[in-house]
Design brief:
There is one protein chain. This protein is an alpha+beta fold. It folds into two domains: about 140 residues, Sandwich (Jelly Rolls); about 70 residues, Orthogonal Bundle (Arc Repressor Mutant, subunit A). It has nine helices and ten strands. A hairpin with a 2-residue loop joins strand 9 and strand 10. The longest helix has 23 residues. The termini are far apart.
Length: about 230
């Protein structure tokens, strides 16, 4: 049972103003939303798994989704969390191959879902819409480049700060992340995460509570995370 009701017009407004759909032509935007279904997922619920049958795309309206993946024959690992307005799942439309990532709700999460058959109908009516859908993959590539860049930082505190900085873009306060989850994304031990969070809290950048972190000074955290980038 959902504890927070998201109205359809509010969900559409969020997606019109954030992420991939926000910079698409108005006619295409409206058609995507007209054909989409608003769905709610419970904490821990899997949206889709690696190897699942072909399916459509999902756009994040509220909540938090975990993006898990790994090479074939390896267990999926948490690599990132979805940003507000981000869409994913375009791989099935583009390649006609099964899912390559796992998407899981971390907290109660609302997603707009455009089924694959609706995407195919749109592409049959206007082949140019394949270009619009293809742009989703570039947003995914940009996110992956950011993840790789952050993981290449030598200092563990800066890797951890980078993860927190990325997480602030999801629009969720407080951040519903455990120290283990932060460590997985930052390539850091739980002890390193615990020590870093204490140092950040002492500086007034954040405060911690059970299974959550509240960012209090995002700009200071960003400056520290990117100090070695210039």
């Amino acid at each position: 049972m959902s504890t927070t009701l998201i109205k359809r017009d509010a969900a559409e407004s969020i997606l019109r103003q954030n992420g991939w759909l926000s910079y698409q032509p108005e006619a295409f935007r409206s058609e995507v939303l007209r054909r989409s279904v608003l769905l709610c997922f419970s904490p821990g619920e899997v949206i889709y798994r690696i190897g699942d049958d072909l399916g459509g795309i999902y756009g994040l309206v509220s909540g938090t989704v975990m993006v898990n993946t790994a090479p074939p024959d390896h267990a999926p690992q948490l690599i990132n969390i979805g940003a507000l307005g981000a869409w994913t799942g375009e791989d099935c439309f583009l390649t006609r191959q099964p899912r390559r990532i796992e998407l899981r709700a971390l907290v109660e999460t609302w997603l707009m879902h455009l089924p694959l058959e609706q995407m195919d109908q749109m592409a049959s009516a206007d082949p140019m819409v394949a270009h619009n859908f293809g742009q989703i993959i570039m947003s995914s590539v940009d996110a992956l480049i950011r993840v790789i860049h952050d993981l290449q930082k030598v200092d563990s505190d800066r890797r951890i700060a980078s993860v927190l900085q990325r997480a602030t873009s999801i629009g969720e306060r407080p951040l519903p992340l455990t120290q283990t989850e932060i460590g997985t994304m930052a390539r850091a031990s739980r002890r390193q995460v615990n020590a870093a969070l204490k140092r950040f809290a002492e500086k007034g950048w954040l405060k911690t509570s059970y299974r959550s972190i509240t960012i209090q000074n995002a700009e200071k955290l960003r400056l520290f995370a990117t100090e070695d980038d210039n």
